[in-house]
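This part of the workshop introduces the protein records we will be handling. A record pairs a protein's sequence with a compact description of its fold. Comparing a sequence with its tokens is the quickest way to learn the format. The record below serves as our worked example for the rest of this section:
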Amino acid sequence: MPIPKKIHYCWLSGDPLPEDLQKCLRTWQAKMPDYELVLWDKNKFAVDSVPYVAEACRAKKWAFAADYIRLYALYTEGGIYLDSDVVVCKSFTEFLVYDFFTAVEYIPGIARKPLTRQLLNADGSLKNEKFCAVPGIGIQAAIMGAQKGHPYLRDCLSWYEKQHFILPDGSYNTKLIAPNIYAAVAVRYGFRYRDERQNLKENMVIFPSSVFAINNGTLILDQTYAVHYSYDSWRSVWYKFFMKLAAKNNFVRRLLGKRPLKTIDEIIQGDF
């Protein structure tokens, strides 16, 4: 049985959806008009049912709460999950034959640094099997599809169900983020920290990062089906201020010899 034609997304704050994100949602409907859109908000999911989610919501760290809810949505109903800042370029229908699919999240400028290489063998396997984050390489959390009840989703959910978002000292449990966690769990299914197509156990496929790309200045290619704009709603106000001035400022990027980042409108128009 194929993955059902449902697109799940989260919006937990109760605030109006910004116009840029509404533009993203319209690309889903344009490219996959026969898919049902399912909104997960506080009416759809009982946020107090899971301590990690309840605490993230109490701190208004909505994206961390969504890290659990997206897994729950796919585990209980099946379908496709998209972050609200994902621009869809092509229909995903050909991927529905798998039991689970997503892509590698790969950030070349970080992944090629010595620290990452020190953690990995030449084949992309971990030198130390300890649950950890590998800088610059993970699993794309913004775009994924799955059959209802997939065991990989159950394993990811179990990790969150043992955690608290607010730690005893009052700080937030953010050292590991979703791409790190999802990748570490996927190691049990055969995942390697390499930016290439990987066919794993339980009919899972992990595509190279170019299939579900992130807007980090890398060239978006003909094989790209969707782009995660990286709205960074989970970041602090000061972090976003710095990023706007520096890392995400296209004038600064050009001075440093980096590719400019695309706007949502440019991605939607296919101006790659």
In short: Residues 211 and 223 are 6 Å apart (CA to CA). The mean pLDDT is 88. The chain has one domain: 6-234. The chain has ten helices and eleven strands.
